[in-house]
Specification:
It is built from seven helices and 21 strands. The chain has 403 residues and is an alpha/beta fold. The chain folds into two domains: 293 residues, Metallo-beta-lactamase, Chain A, CATH 3.60.15.10; 60 residues, no CATH class. The strands form four sheets. Strands 6-5-4-3-2-1-14-15 form an eight-stranded mixed sheet. A seven-stranded mixed sheet has the order 7-8-9-10-11-12-13. Strands 18-21-20-19 form a four-stranded antiparallel sheet, with no helix packed on it. The chain is globular and about 75 Å long. It binds zinc ion (ZN) (2 copies). The site of one zinc ion (ZN) has 8 residues, from loops. One zinc ion binds next to loops.
C-alpha cells in the first residue's frame, strides 16, 4: 500500500496484562504493540504484546491470501522488541503471518543476562515449547532473522534511521527512535524516572521528536508512593520530558490494567493542561506524519451505556395474535453509545463536550444530559457545519421534568 506519510498505528496500549473489563474497552485491553509504516513502504513493529494478534489479522485482510498467487514475497517487517516481560511478547504465538512461508520478519532486541546469547530467539522458541502451546516453533514457516542490539546502537533500514537507548526498568528495557523522511517517532515505554543516567538517555533520544510514545501507567501520586520501584512512569513525567526536549506530540501509553477509561481520561485532561499536544493511546488510533502536518484518527468504538429517562414514545407493531396496534408508551431506560452532530464549532479530538438533548414537552419527560468525548470531526460536513462524532462517557441523572 502506498502512502505519503509515516503512519503510527496503536494495536495494543495496555501495560502488564490484557484487560477485558467493560470499563477499559474504550481505550482497549490488548498489551503493547505499535506499528509504524513509512512512505517508502517500510514496516516496523514495536513490541509483540497481545495487540500483535490484531495487527496480524489486519495485515492478512490487507495483503490477504492473494499475495501467494501474486507472488510478491508476502509481508516483510522489522520487529523491535523492548524487553521480554509477558506484556511485550505474548502476542507472538497468535500472529498468523509468522506461520506463512512467504513472509519475512527481522527481529531486534538485547541480550538478557538471564538468557545469554540469542535471547529473543530463545524467548520465541520457549513460547511455542511443549506443554505451553499446541504446535512447536517448527510450524513458524515465515523467514525469521535475529539481530542482537544494545543501548547506544544506531543503524539504518532503507530510509529510516534507528537509535536505541536503555531505559530504567527491572531486567532492562530498550527505547527506540525512528527517524523517517517524514517524521520522527520515539517509543519509550516501561521506564521509571529518577535514575540520572537513564533520564539522560531518554532525553537525548526524545530530542525534538514529532511523536513521543511514553509510559504513563500510574498517577503521579501512585508513582511517588505505592508504585515506586515498579519500573513505570506517569503523565506528569511525560509532560516534563516533552517540554524539556521540545517534542511535538506526547502519547500517554501502557495504561495500567486497573485503570478504567475514565481514569485515563483524567490523566489525559491533566496532561493537556500542561502540554496541550498530548494524546492518550487508544487501540485502533493512528497518527500520520506527512508533508501536510500531523493527523490523528481515532477508531470507531461505541459501547452501549444505559441511561435512565422518561420519554414518551409512540410504538406500533403486531400483537402475539397478529393484530396491528399503536400506543403511547413510556421509555424508562435507553442504551446510547454516541451521536453524530452537526456543529459550527470544531471541537478537539479526545476533548469533552456536554450534550443536552431536549425531551418532548409532555409531563414527566425530561432532557437527556450527557457527557461526551469527541471521537471524530469532519470539516464542513454540511455547508458551514462540521460533522462531529461523540461517544457518551458517563451516566448522568436526567434533567428534572419541566413544568
Ligand atoms: Zn510492559
Ligand atoms: Zn516491563
Amino acid at each position: 500500500m502506498t502512502q505519503n506519510a509515516t503512519k503510527v498505528t496503536f494495536w495494543g496500549v495496555r501495560g502488564s496484562t490484557p484487560t477485558v473489563e467493560r470499563d477499559s474497552w474504550r481505550y482497549g485491553g490488548n498489551t503493547s504493540c505499535v506499528e509504524l509504516t513509512t512512505a517508502g513502504g517500510g514496516r516496523f513493529i514495536f513490541d509483540c504484546g497481545t495487540g500483535l494478534r490484531m495487527l496480524g489479522n489486519h495485515l492478512r485482510a490487507v495483503n490477504g491470501r492473494w499475495t501467494k498467487w501474486r507472488g510478491d514475497g508476502g509481508i516483510e517487517a522489522h520487529v523491535l522488541v523492548t524487553h521480554y516481560h509477558w506484556d511485550h511478547i505474548q502476542g507472538i504465538p497468535f500472529f498468523h503471518p509468522f506461520f506463512e512461508p512467504q513472509n519475512r520478519f527481522h527481529f531486534y532486541s538485547f541480550e538478557s543476562k538471564y538468557l545469554g546469547r540469542n535471547s529473543l530467539r530463545q524467548v520465541l522458541e520457549a513460547q511455542l515449547a511443549k506443554p505451553y502451546f499446541p504446535v512447536d516453533v517448527g510450524t513458524m514457516a515465515a523467514t525469521r532473522t535475529f539481530r542482537e542490539i544494545t543501548g547506544g546502537d544506531q543503524w539504518d533500514i532503507e530510509e529510516t534511521h534507528i537509535r536505541t537507548v536503555f531505559l530504567n526498568h527491572p531486567q532492562g528495557c530498550l527505547g527506540y527512535r525512528l527517524d523517517t523522511p517524514t517524521g520522527s517517532v520515539v517509543y519509550a515505554t516501561d521506564n521509571e524516572p529518577g535514575a540520572p543516567e537513564f533520564d539522560d538517555n531518554l532525553r537525548q533520544l526524545a530530542q525534538g521528536a514529532n511523536v513521543l510514545i511514553y509510559d504513563a501507567q500510574y498517577s503521579p501520586e501512585q508513582l511517588a508512593s505505592t508504585r515506586k520501584g515498579w519500573g513505570h512512569s506517569c503523565w506528569l513525567e511525560g509532560v516534563k520530558i516533552a517540554c524539556e526536549t521540545k517534542v511535538k506530540n506526547l502519547v500517554l501509553f501502557h495504561h495500567d490494567p486497573d485503570s478504567s477509561s475514565t481514569t485515563v481520561d483524567g490523566f489525559l485532561s491533566a496532561a493537556r493542561q500542561e502540554f496541550p499536544a498530548t494524546w492518550a493511546a487508544m487501540e485502533g488510533m493512528s497518527i500520520s506524519l506527512g508533508t501536510n502536518g500531523t493527523e490523528v484518527v481515532l477508531p470507531e468504538a461505541r459501547l452501549g451505556q444505559r441511561r435512565r429517562l422518561c420519554f414518551l414514545a409512540t410504538v406500533s407493531g403486531r400483537t402475539e395474535d397478529g393484530m396491528p396496534f399503536e400506543e403511547k408508551a413510556t421509555v424508562r431506560d435507553i442504551s446510547v453509545q454516541g451521536a453524530y452532530l452537526w456543529l459550527h464549532h470544531r471541537p478537539r479530538l479526545q476533548s469533552e463536550l456536554r450534550v443536552v438533548i431536549d425531551g418532548p414537552q409532555q409531563a414527566g419527560a425530561g432532557a437527556l444530559a450527557l457527557r461526551a468525548t469527541v471521537t471524530h470531526c469532519e470539516a464542513r460536513r454540511s455547508k458551514d457545519q462540521n460533522g462531529v462524532g461523540v461517544f457518551f462517557i458517563e451516566d448522568a441523572e436526567p434533567e428534572p421534568p419541566r413544568d
